């Protein structure tokens, strides 16, 4: 799918599909407001081959695309990362700004999200640097810095209205996830807990740390509670600690993601907003819940 003002491009998809042994059965336009969305139904024996064949000609185009089985396309569980996915910032980096340490802490965050540092150790190091920060900075950061990314509320509310369970699972902090979950319409949220004493942060985070493996566990636990297979789930995130849940889900999407995540996700969204995840599932714009 292409965002507004993406410009013209020309790819002979028929030739691409044929080269991957796929046969086009049906092609249609999905009602998409100001975005161009084309839905193509294929017969193919090898999904991975089709995905690989499409990747090369699509590279460099201002288009987000997804290759997936038609059956079970609409997912019954959404698991979403928060920082830089559902919201516009990394909350820990914004807290660091109030402490005058944003450059130092952001550098560690970037390395952790790229998979260059172990998440748990990097989280403890960054939180330790915030020791003594007044607890009032959390609400100030939320009020002044945190905003839902475009399409986030529509994504969550539309899936929820169609019977899907929506869970916000973050390596960040419950102070923020509880508020973001309510704002976007998630049913449940999981995150880490900052420890406070005497009105200030102690520089510690409560055990156990919610990181890569805990996000994967959340996906499995939520799916099991619903009695659905992982193929009926959708996971979206941007950092290395999201990769396990993205790979294990039925449709794992990298949103404005780090290279390690974008390279291994089932699909990625680099151009459109989060409603792209609805179009990937076959929703039309007139089915979106917008308020």
Radius of gyration computed on alpha carbons: 20 Å
Total number of beta strands? 10
The top level CATH class name of the largest domain: Alpha Beta
Helix/strand structural class: alpha/beta
**Global shape:** elongated
CATH architecture verdict of the largest domain: 3-Layer(aba) Sandwich
Termini Cα gap: 23 Å
How large is the share of residues in beta strands?
15-25%
Number of domains: 2
CATH topology of the largest domain: Rossmann fold
CATH H-level homologous superfamily name of the largest domain: HAD superfamily/HAD-like
Any low-confidence stretches, pLDDT <50, length ≥5? none
Tell me the helix content.
25-40%
Order of helices and strands: HEEHEHHHHHHEHEEEHEHEHEH
Characterise this structure.
By secondary structure, the protein is an alpha/beta fold. It has two domains: 1-67, 2-Layer Sandwich (Alpha-Beta Plaits); 74-291, Rossmann fold (3-Layer(aba) Sandwich), CATH 3.40.50.1000. It contains 13 helices and ten strands. The chain has helices at residues 13-19, 47-58, 82-86, 91-98, 102-113, 119-128, 136-145, 152-161, 174-184, 212-226, 243-248, 259-262, 276-280, and strands at 23-29, 38-43, 77-80, 165-173, 188-192, 194-197, 200-205, 233-237, 251-255, 267-269. The strands form three sheets. It has a six-stranded parallel β-sheet with strand order 5-4-3-8-9-10. A two-stranded antiparallel sheet has the order 1-2. A two-stranded antiparallel ribbon has the order 6-7. Strand 8 (233-237), helix 11 and strand 9 form a beta-alpha-beta unit. The longest helix is centred in the last third of the chain and has 15 residues, at 212-226. The radius of gyration is 20 Å and the shape is elongated. The two termini are 23 Å apart. The mean pLDDT is 90.
């Amino acid at each position: 799918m292409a965002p507004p003002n993406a410009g013209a491009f020309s790819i002979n998809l028929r030739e691409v599909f044929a080269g991957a042994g796929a046969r086009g059965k049906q092609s249609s336009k999905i009602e998409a407001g100001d975005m161009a969305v084309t839905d193509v139904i294929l017969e193919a024996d090898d999904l991975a081959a089709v995905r690989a064949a499409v990747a090369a000609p699509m590279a460099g185009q201002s288009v987000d695309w997804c290759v997936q089985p038609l059956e079970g396309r609409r997912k019954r569980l959404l698991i979403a990362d928060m920082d830089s996915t559902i919201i516009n910032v990394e909350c820990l980096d914004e807290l660091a700004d109030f402490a005058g340490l944003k450059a130092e802490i952001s550098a560690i965050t970037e390395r952790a999200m790229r998979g260059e540092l172990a998440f748990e150790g990097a989280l403890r190091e960054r939180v330790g640097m915030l020791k003594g920060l007044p607890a009032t900075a959390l609400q100030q950061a939320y009020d002044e810095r945190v905003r839902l990314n475009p399409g986030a509320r529509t994504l969550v509310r539309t899936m929820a209205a169609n019977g899907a369970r929506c869970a916000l699972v973050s390596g960040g902090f419950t102070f923020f996830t509880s508020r973001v979950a309510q704002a976007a319409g998630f049913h449940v949220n999981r995150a880490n807990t900052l420890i406070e004493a005497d009105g200030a942060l102690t520089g510690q985070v409560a055990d156990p740390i919610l990181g890569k493996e805990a996000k994967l566990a959340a996906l499995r636990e939520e799916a099991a509670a619903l009695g659905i297979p992982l193929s009926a789930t959708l996971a979206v995130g941007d950092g290395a600690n999201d990769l396990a849940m993205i790979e294990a889900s039925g449709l794992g999407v990298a949103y404005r993601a780090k290279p390690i995540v974008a390279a291994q996700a089932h699909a990625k969204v680099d151009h459109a907003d989060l409603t792209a995840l609805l179009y990937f599932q076959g929703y039309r714009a007139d089915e979106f819940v917008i308020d």
